[in-house]
Design a protein that fits this description.
Layout: E1 19-24, H1 29-40, E2 43-49, E3 58-61, H2 67-77, E4 82-87, H3 103-131, E5 134-139, H4 152-171, E6 177-184, H5 191-194, H6 201-204, H7 210-222, E7 227-230, H8 233-241, H9 247-258
Parallel strand pairs: 1-2, 1-4, 2-3, 4-5, 5-6, 6-7
């Protein structure tokens, strides 16, 4: 059951910070590093996470893979003047779709990566537009650019997030609210362990520093950029090559990287 923490107060008297950032998936990895950066940059931070309190900001422990969890988080922050919203929460599920993965895991992945992203955006972005001020960061992935053999549902979920973010950006072009897509490559977080992908080439290969990825995302967000591919040269090269390779070739390459070793 979702656990509630004291409702954050609107910045004002007695607060040293004047801007508010809401970060989801903030217990570890890129989300935690984003929360730390916002805190360092003078934001009041509301850090949402499911399994443990983030060691920065005002924690809200909530399961965003459920509609009730989304509503709980939104109820505690939607009346506040959100200056930056980082929709970062997400999970993976590795393995062959037909034989290896569990339907319940993939449906939970869709609930968190896709449904909660849409649900939170629907609840929290309109007040930002009404104030004609704010910045929204969606954590997409370089995986959004390629069919994800042996990680099929995850890659598809990130393709949704990427398309969704860019579409909203276009719609909000004259509102004073910017939308930015953060597209990491393999990053040194708990992601591969949780996705059961530690015995894959990508799981055992080089990974980017989540702090560097988060910094690239923060800077792109503050500059109002459309997207940023972060952080290593290899990841950026992969993003560029993905624009030219046919989907069949990208699926084959991804399959070699994500297929469990026998």
């Amino acid at each position: 059951m979702a656990e509630s923490h004291p409702e954050p107060q609107e910045p004002g008297a007695g607060h040293r910070m004047s801007r508010l950032a809401v970060v989801t998936g903030a217990s570890s990895g890129i989300g935690l590093e984003l929360a730390r950066i916002f805190d360092d940059e003078g934001f009041e931070v509301v850090a949402a996470a499911e399994d443990e309190d983030p060691p920065v900001g005002r924690p809200i422990r909530v399961d965003l893979a459920t509609p009730e969890g989304v509503e709980q988080l939104a109820a505690q922050v939607r009346a506040l003047p959100i200056d930056a919203l980082a929709l970062n929460a997400g999970i993976g599920a590795g393995g062959a779709f037909v034989t290896d993965t569990r339907l319940e895991d993939e449906l939970r992945l869709i609930d968190l990566n896709v449904r909660s992203t849409v649900h939170l955006a629907k609840l929290l972005v309109p007040p930002m537009v009404a104030r004609r001020r704010g910045r929204v960061l969606f954590t997409s992935s370089i995986a959004s650019t390629q069919p994800g053999a042996f990680h099929a549902v995850y890659n598809a979920s990130k393709s949704f997030v990427q398309s969704f973010a860019l579409a909203i950006r276009e719609e909000l072009g004259d509102t004073g609210v910017t939308v930015t897509s953060l597209m990491p490559g393999p990053t040194d977080t708990e992601f591969f362990e949780r996705a059961d992908m530690e015995d894959t080439r990508i799981g055992q290969g080089p990974k980017d520093d989540p702090a560097e990825v988060a910094r690239a995302g923060y800077e792109a967000l503050m500059e109002g950029k459309e997207r940023v591919v972060a952080a290593s040269l290899m990841t950026k090269a992969q993003g560029r090559l993905g624009r030219f390779l046919p989907d069949s070739a990208k699926a084959a390459v991804h399959g070699k990287m994500a297929k469990p070793k026998e």
